[in-house]
Amino acid sequence: MAGLTYLKSVVTLELSADQCTGCRMCTTVCPHDVFVIKEKRARIVNRDACMECGACAQNCPGDAISVRSGLCGCASIFIRGQKHGRMTRYFFRMWGYEV
Ligand code: SF4
Ligand code: SF4
User: Fold this and answer.
1) Of 16, 80, 88, 96, which residue is the least packed, with the fewest Cβ within 10 Å?
2) Reported pTM
């Protein structure tokens, strides 16, 4: 779902380039193309597109990424597989998830 943007300049995502091994896992798991690999290191290129799902941080072998995932509760509800209503399903579909 590249190209989608949420609230600007509120995302908690941080990347420590020094800890990055360049494994590309973050570019693989991120649904919004927030990262690119340049000169064998990850770079954040689209911070405002981050929906704070936490997938990148959970899968980063170098602990180079931090993000307060599920801050709004929506992503964490989805990840935990809890029952969600019509409006929540609407937003998940908007974000590109099949629910
Ligand atoms: S997953 Fe972590 S170590 Fe791998 S490229 Fe991304 S930031 Fe670097
Ligand atoms: S938290 Fe989710 S949306 Fe944000 S950069 Fe990581 S994988 Fe991408």
Assistant:
1) 80
2) 0.71
